[in-house]
Amino acid sequence: QTSSPLASSAASSEAVPEQRTRRKRGQKRRLVNTKAAAQEGSLAASTAASSEAISQLKLWKRREQKNIWTIDHIQGTKLRMNKRRRPSYRPEDQEAFYRLLEDPVIQSFLEADIFLKVSDKYLLSMVVEYFGRVGLPGHLYNRVHFFLALYIASDMEEDNPTPKRSIFQFLLGKEHWPDLYKEFLKLKVEFFHAMGHRAWVTPELCEEIQAQKPHHWVWSRVRQCAP
After folding, report:
1. Alpha-carbon distance 177 to 139, whole Å?
2. What pLDDT score was predicted for residue 161?
3. What residue spans carry the region label Disordered (predicted)?
4. Cα–Cα distance for residue pair 110/54, rounded to 1 Å
């Protein structure tokens, strides 16, 4: 028995809303899945950047640090010698530093540090010297390395631990940093080890680094007394 055209039309009309409902549900699921994938992708990107930095540090052994001797002063017939370390930074370390200053995340961080508590010209100079002490090829240094060096410089020179924590939010993201900052701290240990556990940099060496390109805007970051 064949169904009437009217019955077929009614059945088709009932099927259309059902198909639309299924289609909307499918689109909603895809939207939710896409949003979740984007969040996971952001988290994975931050983790991948840290993992890449760890791999780079482990691939390059700490270079032998050469010492030089200078005459401190002459007393009678005796010469008193003063041992000092040769600066570790290279032209490629300076090039890497200036290149990373153009990174939008680093620029945002520098702009936000209005009192220069964690990024004055001396702390930033130490980043250049730290790059030399680690000894990676200059083109391999990235945003993660920059913030690792700056964090260690702040550890070395500053008594207040609070300002440097802003690095976590800019590097790892305001949403994800509570989950990732411990990985950053582990990587900081690796970076410090690659530096030969030498974090101290003299003011004279910082000023030497600044003098290589004295008119660059970054060296105008002179800290003033904060209110």
Report:
1. 26
2. 87
3. 1-42
4. 24
Integer distance in angstroms from the first to the last C-alpha of the chain?
92
DSSP state string for 54-116 = HHHHHHSPPPPPPEEEEEEEEETTEEEEEEEEPP---HHHHHHHHHHTT-HHHHHHHHH-TT-
d(C-alpha 195, C-alpha 204), whole Å? 19
pTM of the model: 0.68
Close Cβ partners of 89 (under 8 Å, ≥ 6 residues apart): 128, 129, 131, 132, 209
Q: Which residues of the chain have pLDDT under 50?
A: 2-16, 24, 27-28, 30-41, 61-73, 79, 81-83, 227
Contact 212, 121 (CB under 8 A): no
DSSP string, the chain: -PPPHHHHHHHHHHHHHHHHHHHHHHHHHHHHHHHHHHHHHHHHHHHHHHHHHHHHHHHSPPPPPPEEEEEEEEETTEEEEEEEEPP---HHHHHHHHHHTT-HHHHHHHHH-TT-SS-SHHHHHHHHHHHHHH---GGG--HHHHHHHHHHHHHHH-S--TGGGHHHHHHH-TTTHHHHHHHHHHHHHHHHHHTTS-----HHHHHHHHHTSTTSGGGG-------
Gap between the Cα atoms of 122 and 205, Å rounded: 10
Q: How far apart are CA 69 and CA 82, in angstroms?
A: 6
Q: For residues 125 and 215, what is the distance between their CA atoms, to the nearest angstrom? A: 14
